Amino acid sequence: MRKTSLLLDLVTFTVVSLATVSAQTPILMKAGYSAPTPIPVAPGQVITLYISGTKTVLPPQNQSIRAATTPLPATLGGFAVTVRQGNKTYPAPLLSVAQTPNCTDANQTSPDCITTALTLQIPFEIASVSVLIQAAQTPGDLSVNDNGTESGHFPIAVITDNIHVLTLCDLRAGSFLPSPCPAIVTHADGTMVFSTSPAVPGETLVLYAYGLGPTTPAVKTGESTPILVPDVLDPFSAPVVSNDFKVQFDFRPNARASIPYLAQGRIPTPDFVGLTPGQVGLYQINVKIPATVPAIPACTVSFDCLNTLIGCLIQSNATINIAGVSSFDGAAICVQPPQ
């Protein structure tokens, strides 16, 4: 695999809201087109829970706490999360706790107006099954402890993989960025792939993601991924994922993620899929751009067509689609068109 110099400081990915059982007023849990539970998770996945109505309110001068050491702590800022499956329970190590006032009311420090974000790692020890047989899996749930006050138990759906390719929105929670947010994809030297620094045909790129499931060898929950003992053939080695992932390129402007399909008798696999050394629960996917790419327009913005950006903004001209057993995602990037 290729070594990258990029060290990521990552925050939010899967967004779910929970309410403590002691809350006395209606609390917004989630908005959109799907129910907030069960929460889909994969073993080892880093996710963020968004909670309202907690009795613990952090001081205004310190509304964000990050774990300073590894192994990650089971309790941070007075909060703890427990994952339960069958007759076994596991503490979920916490990466950070952050609180934000989200009401328009005058008293924004009221617990009902405070949203608490708990970023944690789902234990690798929980068992997962394919989505195809999900109904028969061992039930699982999680609960939140708020300085001694235990919440209810909220169901989780443990799937084989729940891939989320990281984007700049993950690094800059709450900020406005174009939709879809640019994916975090780097050249071999660790610099970002942008329209001003596009990928070139034949180049190997590195994508970063969460939720790719167990690895071989196994890594302990909450601990930084070690660099394995190097050998002659692979001087930089790390744990690889146990699941099978496929990759496919979609050379169309502004193409969204899609499931790779059978083409010419096979679906290719990435060069490497595994955990990133020195990080907790962070995976990297090394993929090689085909040596020959079709005729594609360059990433650009034109302001001279009907006085609108619609149909004129080429944010990406290639999408790298990645799929596992039970999930898929993609990274929209810019590739240098053929000369």
Backbone CA Rg: 21 Å
Share of residues in strands: 25-35%
User: Fraction of residues in helices?
Assistant: under 10%
Residue-averaged pLDDT, rounded?
Answer: 84
Total strand count, please? Answer: 24
The major beta sheet can be summarized as: 7 strands, mixed
Number of helices: 1
> Alpha-carbon distance between the termini?
29 Å
Low-confidence stretches: 1-9, 11-15, 19-23
Shape: globular
> Could you say which structural class the secondary elements and strand pairing correspond to?
mainly beta
**N to C succession of SSEs:** EEEEEEEEEEEEEHEEEEEEEEEEE
Q: What features would you describe in this structure?
A:
Strands 2, 5, 6, 7, 10, 11 and 12 form a 7-stranded mixed beta sheet that branches. A hairpin with a 7-residue loop joins strand 19 (272-275) and strand 20 (283-288). The chain has 339 residues and is mainly β. The chain has a domain at 15-158. The protein starts with 14 loop residues before the first strand and ends in a 6-residue tail after the last strand. The chain has one helix spanning 168-171, and strands at residues 15-19, 39-41, 46-52, 64-66, 75-76, 79-85, 88-91, 94-101, 114-121, 140-146, 149-150, 154-158, 164-165, 185-186, 204-210, 215-216, 240-241, 246-250, 272-275, 283-288, 300-301, 313-314, 318-323, 328-333.
Briefly say what this structure is.
This protein is an all-beta fold. Helices cover 1% and strands 32% of the residues.
